[in-house]
Amino acid sequence: MAQIRKAVLVGHCGPDAAMLRSVVTDAMPNVPVESADTAAAVAASAEEGNPLLINRVLDGEFDTDSGVELIGRLARRDQPPKLMLISNYAYARQAAIDAGALPGFGKAAIYQPAVTQHLRQIAAHSDDSSSSIK
């Protein structure tokens, strides 16, 4: 499995990106965290092993506003990154899993210890990265 070079926050507004950056940095202290708000930035960051935390409704310059649609496209790559949808809606997180993502989590749960543990498992390449976060 490829090493994580960076975590990427995709399509989040400024306040949400700051909140997510804090949690990801806590869970993955040695991993740089970047934001991507264009399709070109995502393409440049979508390397195997890198976790991409994708907003349900993309904020930025993309050819779609659907995070689930973007996940589906990225999941079809030969060596896809680790994809997660960040949404409070369980149906959207399930649609993302069906499209090829790992289980994501909602912004309402972001400070729960289970979210930090989930991110740590992903950073450690744990086989148990499929745990469900509400």
Describe what you observe in this structure:
This protein has about 130 residues and is of the alpha/beta class. The chain has one domain: 3-Layer(aba) Sandwich (Rossmann fold). Helix content is about 40%, strand content about 15%. It has 5 helices and 5 strands; from the N terminus they run βαβαβαβαβα. Strands 2-1-3-4-5 form a 5-stranded parallel sheet, sandwiched between helices. Helix 1 packs across helix 5 and helix 3 packs parallel to helix 4.
Helices and strands, with pairings:
Blueprint lengths: L6 E4 L3 H14 L5 E4 L2 H7 L5 E5 L11 H9 L6 E5 L3 H10 L2 E4 L7 H11 L11
Parallel strand pairs: 1-2, 1-3, 3-4, 4-5
Helix pairs in contact: 1-5, 3-4
- Report mean pLDDT, rounded to a whole number: 92
The CATH superfamily turns out to be: Response regulator
Total of domains: 1
The fold-level CATH name is Rossmann fold
N- to C-terminal separation? Answer: 27 Å
List SSEs in N-to-C order: EHEHEHEHEH
Number of strands: 5
Largest beta-sheet details = 5 strands, parallel
**CATH architecture type:** 3-Layer(aba) Sandwich
Strand percent estimate: 15-25%
Individual helix count: 5
